[in-house]
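Researcher: I'm comparing several assemblies side by side, and this is the next one on my list. It has 482 residues spread over two chains. Same procedure as the others: predict the full complex and return the structure.
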Amino acid sequence: MDKRTFLKTGLMSTIALPMTSFIHNIDDDKTTVLFQGDSITDAGRDKAAYYPNQAQGMGTGYVHMAASNILGMYPERHLRIYNRGISGHKVFQLASRWDDDAVLLKPDVLSILIGVNDFWHTLTGGYNGTVETYETDFRNLLRRTKDALPNVKIIICEPFVVKGGSAFNDPKWNSVFPEYQASAKKLASEFNTYWVPFQTALDAVLAKGGAAYWCPDGVHPSLAGARVMADAWLKVYHQIG
Amino acid sequence: MDKRTFLKTGLMSTIALPMTSFIHNIDDDKTTVLFQGDSITDAGRDKAAYYPNQAQGMGTGYVHMAASNILGMYPERHLRIYNRGISGHKVFQLASRWDDDAVLLKPDVLSILIGVNDFWHTLTGGYNGTVETYETDFRNLLRRTKDALPNVKIIICEPFVVKGGSAFNDPKWNSVFPEYQASAKKLASEFNTYWVPFQTALDAVLAKGGAAYWCPDGVHPSLAGARVMADAWLKVYHQIG
């Protein structure tokens, strides 16, 4: 029995405390932040380093930067930060591993960036899903999350593409992909989640340096692009407090 | 012949420009920043990713954070950032690879963090060097650097130890290691370099969270500790401009 279990059990058996607030205080001791998504979130993380706050487990993208920033800034929050992004994933693949890679981790804050593959793989990977598939699957995932974790604070991150990147070679990026972005935004509003406008943040810096500097293939950001993402994400996280 | 070489050769053969300022302008097009050191700098970098600005090549420590910050902040500088830290190294090992891993890269800014192993391995690794060895070797390395790269801006980073870490288990950390720190500082002043006070920065946050949070073994920082280092480094880098 560890110290916390002992305290909890010990107190509970002898003192009649209001249960809800007591358990609430115990849980507040640690704050769990979970990043979910595809390759942009994964960013080459070492999947064997799956414990919280492990440097090798954060990958080399925006998660690593955002995580280290808040760990450095808020030691008193006892943050436990997990990266569970997996390269290539679409919403239905998040759903297939959601129990292990989201619900069981009991995040206080859950950040999700998903959607670029739901569209991109229809161009390159023989995937047949539509924007309706994306929106329906994503809505179901959010419902399931809210049911399992009613107090979780959800951050939906805007899927993005950087114009001029080497994968930005089909007019559907202009005509169809924005529908996926609109679906994500609609769900953020429907579920009253936080929203990180990655597209806006990257568009704002694009003129200086171009896609080659910020996001060579248009989908996977460079270190510079990931830093811009991290800053946009942190702005929202600081609001959550 | 690439565009830049063509421009340079073409112009030089036809117009009588003042050479020094002309070459200066060409070189100013890119700014090379090189991080040198031991495992704290290495931080598990992928050594196959040795080109500048590669995310996997930055490791997961303060270099990754500092690099992504300045890449995100200064696109107009055309930064080329290299991490050439190697785990376990002492000054004499930097010297043995200095031509390939420093001089040939022609850094405009060279950041060096070295010294903890020069001391630590006398406790644990059967190494016989003294603080005099450290200071002499480091002075020779700095002279050699200045001779080869007269305009390089050098940043010397303070070697540090976090009290309470698991490797902080010998009274010599208190009695002898500070002499190594003093030598590094003396050389910074002797060569008129920039100085990053890592010990001060880490001491300032230690009370909240303790060594387990910032630097579990006292030598290798956590993500949180690396973030504190990156912030201290960035403060100095911003002065360089």
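Model: For your comparison table: Chain B has one domain: 30-240.
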